[in-house]
Amino acid sequence: MILVMTIVPHSYGETITSAATEKGATGGTILMGRGTASNSFIQMLGLGDSSKDITYSIVEEQILDDVKQNIINACSGKKAHFGVMFCIKMQTFIKSGNIDKSYKRSKDGEIKMDYSYQIINVIVNKGYADEAMAAARKAGAGGGTIIQAHGTAKEGDVKFFGTEIVPEKDFLMILVPSDKKTQILEAIKNLECLKKAGSGIIFCNEVQDFTLLGKNNI
User: Fold this and answer.
1) 125 FRET partner, CA 20 to 30 A, in 34, 78, 160, 183?
2) Of 50, 6, 44, 61, which Cα lies nearest the Cα of 28?
3) pTM of the model
4) What is the pLDDT of residue 163?
5) Please, what is the angle between helix 13-22 and helix 64-75, to 10°?
6) What DSSP string runs through the chain?
7) What average pLDDT does the segment 38-60 reach?
């Protein structure tokens, strides 16, 4: 099973999930976040400083190409750099390090970069995601997407990876070229707001089939 994720302007999440289910996806989930972009390169990734819909669709591998193409078609009339789409093999979430690094060739209409991407996930106490994003940008990141979140535990419950999960949280996702991952991680983890034990966690996944959505006029 493959997780297909997109980041698109707010109110367009339903367009994406509908396109996915039309080709056999089992459904979709839409989260609301905000972009943090401030320059032309970040705008290229479709992550401008505005409200975003983040969609998750679970897809069987044999219908993956059809689902992706239908999503691309659904966005083909939108502005250039309308959003981004990428895929993660489901076992990535279960078995650390067990990531398929193979890549398929682009189909007509798909735009893909020449190098692989990583998604850096940062969970911090509410209000610190912008600080983490600023450090990541100085280290070479483009833009990110911030999702408001909160823990589900009661005071005194077991901590998640040593992190208190009762307070409100910011969940920051940053899509970066793999060759920049290490320097960006170093910049984030050395922030003062993350020096206290339990103040946040960072984890990464390699993504597959990175695709820009919208008019293909790069």
Assistant:
1) 183
2) 6
3) 0.59
4) 54
5) 140
6) -EEEEEEEETT-HHHHHHHHHHTT---EEEEEEEE---SHHHHHTT--SSEEEEEEEEE-GGGHHHHHHHHHHHHTTSPTT-EEEEEEEGGGGTSTT------PPPPTT----SS-EEEEEEEEETT-HHHHHHHHHHTT---EEEEEEE--PPTTSPPBTTB--SSEEEEEEEEEEGGGHHHHHHHHHTSGGG-STTSEEEEEEEEEEEEEES----
7) 65
